[in-house]
Amino acid sequence: MEDELAARLATNESVFREINEGIERGQWPGEEDRPVGFRCECARLGCAEVIELSVHEYERVRSDSRRFIVLPGHERLEAEIVVETRPGYLVVEKLGQAGEVATDSDPRG
Description:
The chain has 3 helices and 5 strands, in the order H-E-E-H-E-E-E-H. The protein is an alpha+beta fold. Helix 1 packs parallel to helix 3 (96-104). 30% of the residues are buried.
């Protein structure tokens, strides 16, 4: 895969990650274990699918800036690998240039 395409995919996914950061901030204290609807963080144009997981589960994924949550079938194996299969979603990790863009664009620094 071209580095430019990999970078574009990672940038698209980073936008959805920022949306999910806002969803997470909007939760009340003490609700960290209840299911919340997060946006699929895939690179598909027009994807508006929702993945339900708890804030604690989302935080576990977000502890690594190269990792994203996506629906099964939304993974892009030319730019990422599946590192976990969970009920209802996958955790993918960006590789190479895509991983660098994901790390550089992480709003948590």
